[in-house]
Amino acid sequence: MLKPSVGVALEGLPYIIIAAFVTLLFALLDCWFMTMVMLGLTLFIGHFFRDPERVGPEDAEAVSSPADGKVIKVTREEDPISGEMRQVIAVFMNITDVHVNRMPVSGKIETIRYIPGKFINASFDKAHKDNERNIVVVTGKGNQRFTMVQIAGLVARRIVCRVEPQDKLKRGERFGLIKFGSRVDLYIPDGYMPLVSVGQKVAAGETVLATKRKA
Predict the structure, then answer these.
(1) Is 182 a catalytic residue?
(2) What confidence tens digit (pLDDT) does each residue in 51-96 have?
C-alpha cells in the first residue's frame, strides 16, 4: 500500500508544486496581482491536503471516525455488500475539512469494490446510491465486519484508496482520501452503540463514533 507523507498527503503534492511554480512565474513576470492570487491558491491547496497526526481513543473496543467533518446520518440501512440491515453513520466532509481517511478499527481488508456513478452533492441522502463510490470491507476483532464507503461529491472527482485486499492495518492508520470534498459512510456490526448524533463535528482517528455494548 502507498505510504502517506508527513504533514501533507502525497496525492496533493503535484497540485501544490504546479500552483507554486505558476506563482513563481507570475512573480518573475512582475504580475503581482496574479502572483498574489496564485499564492493564495497554493496556500489553499496545501491546507486542503494537510495530513495531521492524530491520537486515537484509549478504549480498545472503540470505533473511531474514518473521516473529518459533520455527522449527517445515524440510522439503519442495508449494507451495500452483504445486504443486511445494519447501523450506519455518515460523515460529510466539506472543502475545509481534512480529507485523509483513516481506519475505524484494526483489522484486515477483505473486499474493495469501486462503483462508478454521479457527482451530486454528497450531503444528499441519495448520494450513497447514485454517486461514484468505493466500498472497503474490514474484518476486525472477532471476525466482525465493518463496511466503509468513500463517496465522491459535487466537487470531488477522485477517490483514492491506498489499501489492497489482505492488507492488515491498525485503527487510525490512513487508508485513502477523497479529493476536494465528499463523505464516508461507516456500517457497523450489531452489538455496537453509536455515541454521536446528527450535526456533531468529528475528527478522523480521534472521535469515537461507537463502542461495544456491555453484556
Answers:
(1) yes
(2) 888 888 988 889 999 999 999 999 999 999 999 999 999 999 888 8
pTM of the model: 0.84
> What is the per-residue pLDDT for 6?
56
The dihedral built from the CA positions of residue 103, 151, 195 and 76, taken in this order, carries a sign that is negative
Angle, alpha carbons 69-70-74 (nearest 5°) = 130
* CA atoms of 45 and 98, how far apart (whole Å): 11
Q: Are 206 and 171 in contact (CB under 8 A)?
A: no
**Which residue is catalytic, options 64, 65, 182, 197?**
182
76-97 as b/e, with b when 16 or more CB fall inside 10 Å?
A: ebebbbeeeebbbbbbbbbeeb
> Minimal CA–CA distance to 89: which of 103, 75, 99, 79?
75
